[in-house]
Amino acid sequence: MKKTINLFVCAIFYFANGFTQEAVFGGRSILSPEVNMDGSVIFRLYAPKAIKVELTGDFLTNVNVQTPMGEMEQAIFVEMKEDKNGIWSYTTEKLSPELYSYKFRVDGMDYLDPSNVYMCRDIASYANIFIVKKESGDKGYLYSVNEVPHGDVNKVWYDSPTLKMKRRMTVYTPAGYDKGTPYPVLYLLHGAGGDENAWITLGRAVQIMDNLIASGKVIPMIVVMPNGNTNSQAAPGEWSKGMYRPSFMEHEASKAIASMDESFPDIVTYIESHYHTLKGKENRAICGLSMGGGHSFATTKRYPDMFNYVGLFSAAIFLGGNDPKKTNMEMLESDPILEKEIAGLFEAAPKLYWIAIGKKDFLYKSNEDYRKYLDAKGYNYEYMETDGGHIWRNWRIYLTLFAQKIFQ
Amino acid sequence: MKKTINLFVCAIFYFANGFTQEAVFGGRSILSPEVNMDGSVIFRLYAPKAIKVELTGDFLTNVNVQTPMGEMEQAIFVEMKEDKNGIWSYTTEKLSPELYSYKFRVDGMDYLDPSNVYMCRDIASYANIFIVKKESGDKGYLYSVNEVPHGDVNKVWYDSPTLKMKRRMTVYTPAGYDKGTPYPVLYLLHGAGGDENAWITLGRAVQIMDNLIASGKVIPMIVVMPNGNTNSQAAPGEWSKGMYRPSFMEHEASKAIASMDESFPDIVTYIESHYHTLKGKENRAICGLSMGGGHSFATTKRYPDMFNYVGLFSAAIFLGGNDPKKTNMEMLESDPILEKEIAGLFEAAPKLYWIAIGKKDFLYKSNEDYRKYLDAKGYNYEYMETDGGHIWRNWRIYLTLFAQKIFQ
Questions:
Q1: Which has more pLDDT, B23 or B290?
Q2: Which CATH number fits domain A17-132: 1.10.8.60, 3.30.365.10, 2.60.40.730, 2.60.40.10?
Q3: Percent of chain B having pLDDT more than 70?
Q4: Does domain A146-403 have CATH number 3.40.50.1820?
Q5: What is the enclosing helix (H) or strand (E) of B261?
Q6: How many angstroms from the chain centroid is the CA of residue A307?
Q7: pLDDT tens per residue, chain A (408 residues)?
Q8: pLDDT tens readout for residues B70-94
Q9: Measured between beta carbons, which residues in chain B are less than 8 angstroms from residue A29?
């Protein structure tokens, strides 16, 4: 059929362009972003009528802004320059290997790059993404799809008797899975505003696992990414609630009949009866970011014999509940049930209890309180501190490091 | 953990909003699109500095435009009206149940709706989507996720010895698949510019199959959606070529070592060795849209004993190759190899050979030529003609109808 298709292509291309209006100037496509060999990146936008075009992205200088929770970092906007053809552009400094996100602002309106189809949703809005990669093994490489064996990604529906509903989750099976060997399982949890798609989009979990397994740094494992919003069956648009607007409050938009930690055994039961898994505590790990770190904290203290490896990534551990005056330390020192549960967990001696957080994370203090409590009790844990705040850049690093510490 | 999360949510919401800038006016979200009970739809965009805001969508009046292939339909742009708060809006007529797509144009720049996170990529650009649904069984219902049992969706990597590469495809397994019963298999192929994701995004194949199976109109089956671009391993961004710009010419951007039809047995071999499948011709169906219709045509004449059910949806059958002067009829009447292959296919007597096309499709004439040839030879086929042209709206209907005709 190959030779017979040219005319056809010509016609359809015309047709498709009519509605979709690709980013084209003077008959040729506009290249944006263009990642140069030295790591600098050129952004371009054709906007001949615009008065002001700006760019923002997580590679630009951050400024501190005041928030209800104290100072937080925010990326600045930089002005782009227009050439005589109406093409606005901006060239960055040399960027280090990483996955970055950005968007434009045209006369005050936020605008996705029409030349770049790669974008990720974060809660209710999108930003374009690109990767700077220099050499094998750097972060850009780890987050890219490379010429290595690839694992499969499954969106499966499991039964949760505890939550009384069918629920959707994402299951990664490593390359070679079909050979039938049983595998250990990592349960990888998302944060508030996320869902079962978060770790395989902004989290790049599939690429990270493929690349680390191929390099021999991580042993082949199944990675299970459930939905942590216990009142939802699935990600927005993927269940019968319809095409609703995603919300940061999704996990408590309506009352769920049980918590994520209560319902966790439903997930383990499904996975171990549907996949080739190694059974038992020593073959299970759990970790999560932010709210998912909170879920990992809560699930492991509720079921101390379920997981041998625990990872708290920028974990949302607010033991004082809605009272901001109660610190975690005060709660830990005054709540005998909490004290007993945590004691029970560490009596069960998880092989790894790993806490990681960025120095600028607004959850730093609550995690510090928790660590001080563990120190005072003499409970064994590992601690990792990175730069930056409550951001995906850190969570990808934490997954990369945590995965290398488990099942070995 | 539930009670402990409010303060946290508050902080993160602030943080997230800083970068992502959701569509918010006066502290509340802007609702767009708003689908009313009567099927009319209100679109809204907050753009206080804009001079002109337009809307286009496939629900608006189409006009005929001249193209290299003759007249084609194109959706018009309508002007939106601004209120005193800078919110532009437009209300449609009552729309019939369907999945629709749209976008805005702000002072000449195409703009996605920041209030609607639901969008689909078509080749290299995006449009927002929404569904109008009135009652159970209508098209809007069929294309929605409803409260019915859901099948799983798997992105798997299979080996293609013919193309000498690992390749990615999408596999739908129906609800209840884990019970272990063997299933028949439908191979569902995309068009030029598409990939293994096309049928589960704009094609709504998962929802169509879930809903038809739940209603008892279609028997449970596995649906396999391979990638028809034989020089690609996977969809853009999903293989080692990096985050390249998708192209309509993807399937012939570089020379592949074999054609899709030659390599098709690699797919069948993988599926039948990895899934619970019923074997043999009577348990296999193949269909595809446009280029995928061409692939279905070519694969079944190459392997007449492989499939019992064949569906050509707006099929790209250009037997005259690059010479537009040669009609299909001329080719069919003058090419003894072609004549012999088609004779071989119909001697093998497929239970269903189903041709469907829209009256305004630019491929209408080439399909008509092919039908005349089949008529003249007395070969048995079914024919379905619909309104409209070379559009997803038709292909979703064809899948809905074809799926009800197979394996019964």
A1: B290
A2: 2.60.40.10
A3: 90
A4: yes
A5: helix B260-274
A6: 21
A7: 333 444 444 344 444 433 444 455 555 689 999 999 999 999 999 999 999 999 999 999 778 777 665 666 778 999 999 999 999 999 999 999 999 999 999 999 999 999 999 999 989 999 999 999 999 999 999 999 999 999 999 999 999 999 999 999 999 999 999 887 899 999 999 999 999 999 999 999 999 999 999 999 999 999 999 999 999 999 999 999 999 999 888 787 677 889 999 999 999 999 999 999 999 999 999 999 999 999 999 999 999 999 999 999 999 987 766 566 677 888 888 889 999 999 999 999 999 999 999 999 999 999 999 999 999 999 999 999 999 899 999 999 999 999 999 999
A8: 666 778 999 999 999 999 999 999 9
A9: 245
* Cβ neighbourhood burial of A147 (10 Å; 0-12, 13-18, 19+): exposed
ipTM of the complex: 0.93
Q: Which of B13, B15, B312 to mutate to test the interface with A (most CBs of A within 10 A)?
A: B15
**For A15, nearest residue in chain B (alpha carbons):** B72
- For B322, the closest of A7, A127, A131 (CB atoms) is A7
Tokens of B106: 């702000």
The crossing angle, in degrees rounded to 10, of helices B364-377 and B336-347 is 70
User: Do B291 and A5 lie within an 8 Å CB cutoff?
Assistant: yes
Provide the 10 A C-beta neighbour count for residue A307. 30
Protein fold of B22-132? Immunoglobulin-like (2.60.40)
CB A332 within 8 A of CB A319: yes
Q: What is the rounded CA–CA span in Å between residue B141 and residue B146?
A: 7
Pairing of the two strands A87-91 and A41-46: antiparallel
Do the beta carbons of residue B225 and residue B190 sit within 8 Å? yes
Which residue has tokens 């010895």? B161
Asked if residue B33 has a cis previous peptide bond (ω within 30° of 0), the answer is: yes
Report the distance separating Cα A314 and Cα A374, nearest Å.
16
The pLDDT score that the predictor gives to residue B1 is: 39
Q: Which residue has the tokens 């009552």?
A: B94
| Spans of all domains in chain A | 17-132, 146-403
Whole-angstrom Cα distance, residue B271 to residue B275? Answer: 6
CA-to-CA separations, B309 to A88, B263, B341, in angstroms, rounded: 53, 19, 17
CB atoms within 10 A of CB B241: 15
pLDDT at A330: 83
Sign, CA dihedral B250-B251-B257-B263, equals: positive
Q: Which residues pair with A384 in a beta bridge?
A: A356
SS3 of residue A289 by DSSP: strand
CB A102 within 8 A of CB B48: no
Q: Which of B116, B146, B321 sits opposite A3 (nearest CB)?
A: B321
Residues in A closer than 8 angstroms to B52, CB to CB, are: none
- Domain B148-403: CATH superfamily is Alpha/Beta hydrolase fold, catalytic domain (3.40.50.1820)
Phi/psi of residue B49, nearest 5 degrees: -95, -5
